[in-house]
Amino acid sequence: MSESTKRNSMYGLMAEFDTPEELVKSTRSASEAGYRQLDAYAPFPVEGLADAVGFRKTRLPLITLIGGFIGCCGGFLLQVYPNVFGYPLNIGGKPYYSWPMFIPITFELTILCAAVSCVIGMLILDGLPTPYHPVFNVPRFELASRTKFFLCIKARDKKFDRARTQEFLESLGPRYVSEVPI
Amino acid sequence: MDPVTEEKPSLVTPESPWIAAGQSYASATDKIGGIVLTEKPPKGWFLGFGIAIIFVLILNMAISYLFAIGVGIWGINVPIAWGFAIVNFVWWIGIGHAGTLISAFLLLMRQKWRTSINRFAEAMTIFAVMCAGMFPLLHMGRPWVFYWMFPYPDTMGVWPQFRSPLVWDVFAVSTYFTVSLLFWYTGLIPDFGTLRDKAKSLFVKKIYGMLSMGWRGSAIHWKRHETASLLLAGIATPLVVSVHTVVSFDFTIALVPGWHSTIFPPYFVAGAIYSGFAMVVMLGIPLRKFYHLEAYITERHLNNMAKMLLATGFIVTYSYVMETFMAFYSDDKYERFMMMNRMTGPYAPWYWLLVACNIVIPMTLLWSHKIRTNTVSLFLIATVVQIGMWLERFIIVVTSLHRDFMPSAWGMYYPTKWDWAVLTGSMGLFLALFYLFIRVMPAISIFEVRELVHKTLEENAH
Asked: In sequence order, which residues have a C-beta less than 8 Å from that of residue B34 and are 6 or more positions away?
């Protein structure tokens, strides 16, 4: 079998570790060795791990801010139009454009739109829901939500080579190294 | 492959205040996940759920009769048009507040003791808001046209009147429910992933797999998940304060003596957190005992929650004192009369019972460390606070309305059996939902307990 067909038939190579410290260290080593298409999997958020796989900044706060801004403006106009133009009612002699009375709902809609855009933004950036993902083909991967820590070097990495990458991963002292079929 | 036998578990040792000694990633996952994935829930679960369902049926009957006949089946009439429905609404929505406070505010403050109580406290919030949201709808008289409160271009050409606090309530409560639900679900996604991987049956695996959306614990996903949790916490903290503030506006915007007061918003928020923490204690103690979760919900957690009761209880006490002081200091004869009537009038026994329940009993007993850490006494005090907080809302609603400016408009309020049926029925609904929750979802956040194990190990290593 040629090298290219092998690449197409597998997603990558996966190494399993016992502790989060080993995983962070190994991920850093892989990054230093020149691998760019990395992902690490842990049963809980590990400090420094996202940094080690080369993930620096998320756009999520910006998305939330934009959502909140839309909610704020939309919420205010939503009240101004009906109460000033659409269906003006004289309530206790108050001016039609009594803007302080519109603040509570403006505030609530700011929060609502910010929260909805935050959660939906997170799911979209994560690419969730993901009905199928190759990493689940590794039988031991179900421990990634329990006790074990995994490092995966993807086959689409330029530096990826079936034998040499396997050798490299084994040099990191993992418990197992396994192939991730597509 | 047997994961349990082959691994060298990393155990927490020695004990930390927030987690018992001997816990590991695996033990936490197995214990909390096992409650959900077992095929046989304990017999007590069926008993409790059965009793709760009886009350849900009572609620069903009371609501059906209400829809058929109208709100006349309740004790409400002019001058007391608000009655139990609004009392229950304010009470339930207040209970919800502690859940958001625990999950959002304590997260921002980096408090470790939120880890093992935040999940069921958030569930409590959602179910309490569901119970609360029901009451204004039932009280409307024509609940089938509730959507008239939302702004939409209709053929009648009318729009809601946005200067009314009752419309603010619609937006505040629906926003609160949606944001709480999103926050809760975001936290549950990794735990659904754990349950999917742990489940034996294919059907159960598929259900949790769908709920987890294919969560795989990728480092990048965790990073975004953490960012999203912090953002949501930052958003939910002002929200929780705003919701009960808006609820208090329902009263303060009116000119009725005893309602028209600037102290109401902070007073209501403190009272909400007070009753909410009492409910967290009332749910946490049985949960801990019957599911043997002492390793995660430690004595220190109970102690902290009792201290929160003490702190918020004092704010509530201060508000009562200030309310009374201002009634006399203002020299407004209606305010003064309202306060005297509250203390010596026909509802005086209930006022003094509320003072006993909210101030005298908890504020004297909770100073003792022994009482705070004894589950039985703490549970009983929380129950007393819960009754007191319900009475507080009853006193606010009824005593102000029943004798306002014109003696010719005075009257009395007597709840009917249908009022009681709806109140007890809403409690049954809350409990039934909570029983279902502990059956199908992890009552303690599994991934956060694993993180706590890791952090405790790190700290002990240093």
From this structure: none
**Do the chains contact at A108 and B175, CB–CB below 8 Å?**
yes
Average pLDDT over residues B63-77: 93
User: B24 touching A, CB under 8 A?
Assistant: yes
Three-state secondary structure readout of B45-107: HHHHHHHHHHHHHHHHHHHHHHHHHCHHHCCCECCECCHHHHHHHHHHHHHHHHHHHHHHHHH
Give yes or no for residue A1 having a pLDDT over 70: no
The answer to whether residue B147 is domain-embedded is no
Q: What is the DSSP letter of A93?
A: T
Q: What's B114's DSSP letter?
A: G
Domain that holds residue B185: 38-142+159-461
Residue B150 sits at the chain A interface (C-beta within 8 Å): no
In a domain, B9, yes or no: no
Q: Is the ipTM of this complex over 0.90?
A: yes
Q: What are φ and ψ of residue A153, in 5° steps?
A: -105, 120
- Domains recognised in chain A with CATH numbers: 3-57+134-181 (3.30.70), 60-126 (no CATH)
How many domains does chain B fold into? 1
Which residue of B8, B29, B227 to mutate against A (max A Cβ within 10 Å)?
Answer: B227
Residues of chain A found within 8 Å of residue B186, distances taken between Cβ atoms: 119, 122
For residue B309, the domain's CATH number is 1.20.1630.10
